[in-house]
Amino acid sequence: MSDYIIPENIPSAADILHFVERAKKSIKKTDIAKHFGIKGNDRIGLKHRLKQMVEQGDLIQGSHRSFSIPERLPPVITALVESVDQDDVAMAKPLSLDHLDARAKETPITVLPAETLKHDVKAQDRVLLRVHKNEDGAYEGLIIRRMPAESYKKQNGFIRFKGKRVVFYPTGRENKQPITVTPEADVQIKDGDFVSVVWPDQDSKPQIEEVLGHEDDVNIVSLIAIHNHGIPQIFPEDVVLEAEASENVDLGEREDLRDTPLITIDGADARDFDDAVWAKADNNEHNAVGFKIIVAIADVAHYVKPNSALDREALRRGNSSYFPDRVVPMLPEKLSNGLCSLVPNEDRACMAVKMTINGSGQLVRHRVVRGLMRSHARLTYQEAQKALDGEPTQNAQPVLQSTLKPLYRAYKALLRAREERGTVDFDFPERKVEIKDGRVVDVYEGERLDAHKLIEEMMILANVAVAKALEKVKHPLIYRTHGRPDGSKLQSTKTVLKELGFDLGEIKYGIHPKDLGSVLSSAQGQSQEHLVQTLILRTLAQAEYSSKNIGHFGLALESYAHYTSPIRRYSDLIVHRALVRAFDLPGYETDGLTDDAVRELENMSKHISETERRSMLAEREAMDRYLTIYMQGKMSEEFQGRISGVNKFGLFVRIDVIGAEGLVPIRTLHDDYYIYDETRHVLIGRRHRKTYRLGAEVRVKLVECNVLTGQMRFSILSAKTFKTKKMDKRLSDPKKKRSSSQSKHPKKSGARRRKKR
What we know:
By secondary structure, the protein is α+β, with helices and mostly antiparallel strands. It is built from 22 helices and 36 strands. The strands form 10 sheets. A 6-stranded mixed beta sheet has the order 11-10-9-13-14-12, with helices on one face. α6 packs antiparallel against α20, α12 crosses α13 and α15 runs antiparallel to α16. The longest helix has 32 residues. The radius of gyration is 29 Å and the shape is globular. It starts with 12 loop residues before the first helix and ends with a helix. The relative contact order is 0.08.
């Protein structure tokens, strides 16, 4: 796809789809242009928009240059298995697709035999399928998971006793309507319990199935997010037994790295240590200012064999999920905190990439080995930083000269390479929640140290090295990809940044990560730094996994894979198996990537991209609720903050230091009738031209905390606003129909208007 930037006045893909759908027939470009009033040179922009939509599969271009909506199912659906034949081929039909027409609901889907066998499905089972069209245009499905047969629908939430009634309040944001429920006879409940509610079938009344916790327990917050997003918590018995049977390895054919002073550097609260690092100056006369570096990673592939119970469960989970009070691991504790944790002074199986860089931080040589290592120290980021600053602790002193100082010099070289290629560097401090005696006592931002960045650069270097190694021998792998930002999003961000006083430069022919990095550098240390970072982050595409390499835009890298955390990411385990197979490393007969897995790499990539997003949403939801609980004790207090978002229904305000964010509804801005300008992301008062824009300083009062949804509401006490001299006629014309989301005119000004008319 070209880097042409589609002008802002060209209708969005959603608007065009809506028009074509309503037409219920093939539509030509001239019909679309006429409907949206597109004339002259703007037709070029429309042409590019339509081309983009065809390439993405949103539209079909037929004969005579006409466009129509493709008849297709969503990529992931719930389906009902109707039959399974003697060859284990299952036929299924979509369920719960109210937005599709009758034909789509009757679409037959062939569930592939291997998938049918793997999940032991039978007629009338409900399954979650990933569907695609084959070469003949028929739908085929791959089973993601088998849905519980006993429940038609399931929700989680809190219950309240209302007289003789038991009322259920869902915690999911998509459905907030309370409903009356019926407890099962053997389920003991009390007011404030967090429960799961099920509908046995489509026509049944909801019933309380299980009590999961109580609102008085602050640890219920993470549990809500875990259940709302369907993150598996309990390991099946065969998985646990398989893990418990695992034993440590002997040296055998592995390379002995036990005398190399490898160390781990992690957070103070880390429980698993899956990466170790070491560096020293290169003694090669041709690379006198270069460095030799080793990044050693726990050898998870040795313990988690392809197609084993452990492997199937790890793929199902996709990754570990991290919450303030707990971790939901991808692997059982025997592995994640035991045999695959590089604890000090213990022999551990590892995969290691040996690398050489020059003084400019460029990768010169690299080699992958399967080894046996022994960590020489477990340091926290704070310990490592103090040692680098000249105050080594007793724990850090023994490895200061042998490892820490050479690592820091190597990091400086890698930093030069990063600056040279130009990357998008975000410096968001990690928010921490302190829980004590069942209460949230503090929310704060963790410090960001050079020690953090040192480890990040070592991991990035190793990830690049293994991607290059596998590419060199043309072996398939799962890449970590990051696409170029969308042109229309870029243009919108450029407009908003200009309002804030930052220039993104010329973007007509695309953009380089260095351009975005330059803006981030300009904002560093300023009061609007967080907002600028957030704006640019929202502009970028989401990183994901794929067997097809499109590079990594944010890091400005042509090839990038995840290799450094197989304890917590299935993608990394796949890369380890690929390395074992590609380079005939010890154990390649049993531990390497299988032919079946190679054929399924793209499907695996899509699945683990989905599980990663699931975890991110759950972690964010939990953090929002913890913040809401913390802020509950500050009702009616005043806070200093900044406008972090502007929408047609109001303003989002981010509180300084704490980082809590809440809504100021537009209906509460009583001094004028405010209109949303989506181009500039501002609210403008129609009468006085008073304008609220992104980044503006505000003083607010907390008026509502909803722990059920993790949302807060503020009222504005004072704000640093500016006055718009001129308004777009489209926005200021009082005869234009008002959006239902806009507030009503104040009575006084409305009376004046009626009098004038």
